[in-house]
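Contributing new records

If you add data, match the layout below exactly. Sequence lines come first and carry their own label; structure lines follow with theirs. Keep one chain per record. Anything else will be rejected by the validation script.
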Amino acid sequence: MKAITPFRVVGGVVIALVVTFVILLKIETGDYLLTPDIAHPVAPLVHVADAKPAKGGGELYFVDVQEQKETELDHLFPWLHPHSARLPAQALIPPGSTDKAFVQAELREMATSQKIAAAVALRHAGYHVVVRPNGVRVDQIGLDTDAAGKLQPTDVIVAVNGKPTLTMDALQAVMAKVNPGETVTLRIRRGTTPLTKRIETYNSGGDARIGFLPAQSVEIGKLPLKIRIDSGNIGGPSAGLAFTLQVLRRLGEDVTHGYKVAATGTIGLDGSVGPIGGIEQKTWGVRDSGAQVFLVPKGGDNAREAMKFAGPNLKIIPVTSLEQALRALAGLHKPPNE
């Protein structure tokens, strides 16, 4: 029998700790973590035919958050991920959906956001852009409705009970003839895949509802200039404002006015800027990049939350539209180094 020595005791403890560490690292809690990601320059992602040199100096940044499954190790030692937020899985992935479907939906949101950003920028610059309604987009899904698990965010509803619903008004007109509790047949487009779903409606103030928050989906015609935005595997619509501003820079407009400017927010075809998630983590990511100004949506408490974490060297500018963002940037004093 081998004698027990201090060296062997220490070795045994180390091995036990390593095994425990590996086990905790592999066991998932079922929740997700949102963690900061440093803001990145937008310029390398946006390509415009016959682009003009950027005016005004400075730099423009977009900001993202990292979404990862939480492990027991993360849960026991939250300081491993400073400034992170814990989210239950159902807050990100609708019931009946999968991680893969969630990622695909986020990539579709990003693709749509890029098209809208290009169209809005060109319209602002005076170009004619053709836009046609092509269905009603599913934004958020009611978790306690029959739609959960059958619909996915970014699905586009093109018909209900055989009647076309290319606009939100058309959808409302069809649904007005449906009694609460009846089952409706939806023809939808998921990416490029046509699908049919039967969903039981529910009663909301005497009206039949399917169980999702609707938004207008549109088809954007051929753009007068070739614009390409490469975002890789980054998903979601929150970089819409940043992409729009960078396209304008490529068209020769002075957007940054000598500042390092970060921007977040969805962009609508009317130029409206909408709220986004993960604003705390995004604010930390902007701080890490050294940006001086952060454009954030005014709605959804985004601006108030960003101001809580901005620190002394980052100026938060709440905006509701592209025009307001451009005016606010133009009204900044010249940077101290000029």
